[in-house]
Amino acid sequence: MRMKRIALLLSLTVCMTTVMAQTYKMVVRVNNGTAMGFPDGKITIPVDNITDIAFEEITNHPQTEATPISFLFKEYYENVTRSPMKRSPAMEVRKFGVFGSYNNGEPLNQDGVSANLMNNQKVTFLDGRWEYYPIKYWPQKVQGNNYASFFAYSPYADGGSNSFVSVNSESDKPVIEYKSINPMDDAGELVYGSRINTTKDVDNGCVTIETKYPLVQLNLNVGLTEDVGENTLGENTKVTIKSVTIGGQIPYSGQFDLYREQWINRSEKSLSYTIEGNNLSAELRDAGETAAANQPIGATRDMKPIGVSPILLIPTDGQKEITITFDYFVTTDDPFLATGYSRIHNVISKTFNVALNSGTRYDVRVNLGLTSVSNISISASSWNNTHDSVINY
Predict the structure, then answer these.
(1) Can you tell me the distance from the alpha carbon of 305 to that of 284, in angstroms, rounded to the nearest whole number?
(2) Which of 112, 157, 193, 239 is the most exposed place for a label (fewest CB within 10 A)?
(3) All domains of the chain, ordered by start, with CATH?
């Protein structure tokens, strides 16, 4: 095991590490000073005529290089914190799964992608570099371009804590399977990247893969309707939330094709997510059966995030029906009541159609009334903060 570790470190310390194959010939000098080289064949020379024997390196033929394949993973958008989750691992803490495809040195085509060079190879950041074992080397080709392609994802499908990501071990395609989990569990985050038709001459065999997000990031925000402002409510009334559920035609699971960068085989089974308890924003979280004075600030005219983390979803296949249900209370302090306060309990749903696209952030803004849910607006932007569109319902 120690020898494996040493070999791994030697090959991946820097991207420029290569192994050169050297060839020598035997040179025999006879008593008249003539040098005779014998790289091949046999010839007989009397021993008394030999004055010197030496081995000289042959340098007038192409060298054969054994170049290890090494990796470097980095964020797709530099200087932008793209991770939506509060405890998402840094790039260096991740474990990547890598698929490698080699089509006899030819560029890949739509039908010729096979993980025949690497198949779900685990790559880990250790001691300042990305490492894996067993080490693979760049294939050799006498002439012409010599392309290879690589496809990566993270977290690595280890069948344990990352069981929401899996790989079909019997398949030779760069495809992963993803199963949705509790939206407040930031282990559900997923990144991917690829380097297609690259060669060992690029950065001395080091394959740089920039990572992107294939999921949907959904951020729910709430505020009061214009006719129910702070002046209307007064200090004695608070609008607080018990739970928010989002459901509808949202895929529960699906496969992601790392080569085509698209979702396939989405499940017909839909899911629903409920944000409640400690996963609700502390400013909005209902405190239970108690007076308004003991409740948090609650909803105001200013929009506030509903959850402590965004929700991660599998993209939909076109426009689908989505439903948001608010379970909330309007609490008013009233000294003329025996309890000292009144509580109005509302459970109200709002349904709309929207297409949730891969790698897109959706900011959903909902206005609450005392007994209604109205004016839902959605702004969509890519995760590099480029604004795309606003949709009103």
Answers:
(1) 9
(2) 112
(3) 2-64 (no CATH), 67-211 (2.60.40.2620), 216-252+264-392 (2.60.40)
Q: What angle do CA 271, 277, 282 make, to 5 degrees?
A: 120
**Selection from 376, 317, 369, 385 nearest residue 352 by Cα:** 376
Q: Is the pLDDT of residue 232 over 70?
A: no
The 3-state DSSP class for residue 205 equals helix
Q: Which residues contact 143 (CB under 8 A, 6 or more apart)?
A: none
Per DSSP, the residues of 278-333 read GGB-TTTB---SS-GGGS-----SS-EESBSS-EEEPPPSSSEEEEEEEEEEEEEE
d(C-alpha 2, C-alpha 10), whole Å? 12
Q: Is the pLDDT of residue 37 over 60?
A: no
Distance CA 190, CA 253 (A): 13
Is residue 148 within 8 Å of 100, Cβ to Cβ?
A: yes
Beta-bridged to residue 206, according to DSSP, are 70
Output the CA angle 384-386-390, nearest 5 degrees.
130
Q: Is 382 a residue whose pLDDT tops 90? A: no
Residue 58: phi and psi, rounded to 5, are -85, 120
How do the residues of the chain divide into helix, strand and coil, expressed in percent and rounded to 5?
10, 45, 45
